[in-house]
Design brief:
Largest sheet of chain A: none
CATH class of the largest domain in chain B: Alpha Beta
Helix content of chain A: over 70%
Order of helices and strands of chain B: EEEHEEEEHHHEHEHEEHHEEEEEEEEHEE
Number of strands of chain B: 21
Structural class of chain A: mainly alpha
Distance between the termini of chain B: 34 Å
Number of helices of chain B: 9
CATH topology of the largest domain in chain B: Rossmann fold
Strand order of the largest sheet of chain B: 7-8-9-3-10-11
Shape of chain A: globular
Distance between the termini of chain A: 51 Å
Oligomer: heterodimer
Strand content of chain A: under 5%
Radius of gyration of chain A: 20 Å
Radius of gyration of chain B: 25 Å
Number of domains of chain B: 2
């Protein structure tokens, strides 16, 4: 069993979750504040699409944007000598786009569940919108936001379709764990594939369980007995 | 110190149109639920913008639709005590109190300490809201408002979230604590008792309109409008017409009532449920109702007798009469009841 798919997967998923996490929070916070319900609904539809579309469709769109014969891809290659497609960056882009809707939806849902009166109270007490977000909304929404982050991380770790389309399956560069499993199975090496499968399952399971544990502990202010 | 409010706001099927002025004394906004009381407070505090109008606090314009002025809630310096207290659940009592203070660390500590002592919150500094009782939550919320030194304090149904047995005690406590505060106080309530007890002046709201503004005691004595009479606890209200200058006929009860004063321009008559006296043996004829007793409801302090006019030719509507327990129990003949209307206390309404 080679270690490179594990390392690439961890690097990809870690880089992707940092981007997805903050992007999801920022966009969710922005969407929550939009007053026009129609506009909100349409934007939400667009932002959630990657979750329901086949990942290959998203891969297709990313190719349309970053392909070396496309304006943006050509510009990046000619002037900055950066080739996005079939590079490690492409695995990150694929993971971000596919995992973003999970993060965004969890964050939005958690923000919307924060009692509006608390936000109003913050305003009448002279707290700035920045303070209100960081001292009230974020702490109260944190369990939901964090669990969204975990799910998004797990989804990024498992990303296959879009990655295969835009990053390919290049050993030591873009071959992530899911692609390695596919490659091993295609080559008839079921035992090697099994090893990767066990690793993916272990990481995903460990992350989710540890998150549940932290979520439980993080809400200590809601239980009457645990605080002395 | 003064607060001037004159605002309008449109909703689907509901229009808010409120105007009043206060100076120093506690002002109550009394109205049935859905009459726009809370929305008025929200407009004053800047949480919800009105559509048009004018709000001025101590000579400072907070909102003026003509001049396009609309200060943010943060800049209005208005304390708002929410009905459910709106304490931040992720912060301790201390942290809640200092949440809005923009001062140095040392000054914050001093103010928090002062508020903790004044509002009897010692020992609760490190507790979270979920660990507090209703009264403690309310004191914390009030301490948080007052620490911020607002120019006016808005109390939204301050006692409605409390259990009945706590209410009286907390009311006394809060009113005592409010003496620490020198600014204006606006109390929204649907309870006539709270309004009567705590507010020097009243604004009466009905269906989003401020229909009456004046001294609380005068409003309770002379409600002027049928809707206001109902809000102030008058249970017997009937439409009426003038028979002569000092005699009216109440349609719903089918009764003629003689008045002490001459009346004009009235549409309704109100009689409080304690404005009758028993007159079984009286030979008098005027303002006496022979009662057909419909029901007798036993309450803690006494009975409420529900009756109609026995002499009525058509189906007259019910009237209510409150009587003390001993008086009712000592009556020999409970089936025959004659009541005399105390004509000093007949309310002439528009």
């Amino acid at each position: 069993m080679k270690l490179s798919p594990i390392l690439i997967s961890m690097r990809t998923a870690s880089a992707a979750i940092v981007i997805t996490f903050f992007l999801g929070i920022i966009i969710a916070n922005w969407i929550v504040k939009i007053k026009s319900e129609k506009f909100k609904m349409i934007l939400d539809g667009i932002l959630t699409l990657p979750m329901v579309l086949p990942p290959t469709v998203m891969g297709f769109f990313i190719l349309l944007i970053f392909g070396v014969k496309r304006p943006l891809g050509k510009f990046l290659l000619d002037f900055l000598s950066v080739k996005i497609v079939f590079s490690w960056t492409a695995t990150v882009i694929a993971a971000v786009i596919i995992s973003f809707p999970i993060m965004y939806r969890s964050a939005r849902c958690s923000f919307e569940q924060v009692d509006q009166n608390l936000i109003m109270a913050g305003r009448t007490l002279g707290m700035s919108e920045f303070q209100i977000f960081w001292k009230i909304i974020m702490p109260l929404a944190l369990p939901g936001v964090a669990s969204g982050g975990v799910l998004a991380f797990a989804r990024g770790l498992g990303e296959f379709g879009a990655t295969a389309m835009i990053a390919g399956n290049i050993e030591n560069i873009t071959r992530t764990l899911p692609l390695a499993i596919y490659a091993e199975v295609a080559a008839g090496n079921m035992d090697a594939a099994m090893n990767y499968v066990i690793i993916v399952m272990t990481i995903s399971f460990a992350v989710i369980v540890s998150m549940n544990y932290f979520t439980l502990r993080g809400r200590k202010y809601l239980s009457k007995d645990k605080i002395k | 110190m003064s607060l001037k409010v004159d605002i309008k706001k449109k909703f689907k099927g509901f229009n808010l149109s409120v105007s009043f002025e206060t100076n120093k004394e506690y002002l109550g906004l009394l109205g049935a639920s859905g009459s726009g009381k809370s929305m008025t407070l929200k407009c004053i505090s800047g949480i919800e913008p009105p559509d048009e109008g004018f709000i001025e606090l101590n000579g400072r314009v907070l909102y003026d639709s003509d001049k396009k002025i609309n200060l943010k809630p943060q800049d209005r310096n208005i304390g708002y005590l929410f009905q459910d207290y709106a304490l931040f659940p992720n912060m301790t009592v201390e942290e809640n109190i200092e949440a809005g203070l923009k001062l140095s660390k040392k000054e914050k500590v001093n103010i928090v300490e002062e508020m903790i002592t004044k509002f009897h919150l010692q020992g609760l500094e490190k507790k979270y809201p979920v660990q507090l009782s209703g009264g403690q939550k309310q004191r914390t919320a009030l301490a948080r408002c007052i620490a911020y030194k607002p120019d006016v304090l808005l109390l939204d149904e301050p006692f409605s979230a409390l259990d009945a047995h706590l209410k009286t005690q907390v009311q006394i406590e809060i009113m005592e604590l409010l003496k620490l505060y020198t600014g204006e106080v606006l109390i929204v309530t649907h309870s006539m008792e709270e309004a009567y007890k705590f507010c020097k002046n009243l604004v009466i709201l009905k269906d989003g309109n401020s229909v009456l503004f004046g001294d609380t005691k005068e409003i309770f004595m002379k409600p002027e409008l049928a809707s206001v009479a109902r809000l102030t606890g008058c249970k017997n209200i009937s439409s009426c017409t003038l028979v002569s200058t000092n005699k009216i006929y109440a349609h719903e009860w089918d009764i003629e009532i003689e008045l002490n004063e001459s009346a004009a321009d009235i549409g309704f008559v109100g009689i409080k449920s304690n404005s009758f006296v028993v007159a079984d043996d009286s030979s008098e004829r005027t303002n006496i109702i022979e009662c057909e007793i419909i029901d007798v409801i036993e309450k803690i302090q006494g009975y409420t007798i529900i009756f109609t006019n026995k002499k009525s030719r058509n189906t007259a509507s019910h009237m209510y009469f409150d009587i003390k327990k001993e008086k009712w129990n000592n009556r020999n003949n409970k089936n025959n009841l004659f009541l005399k209307i105390i004509n000093d206390s007949v309310l002439l309404l528009k």
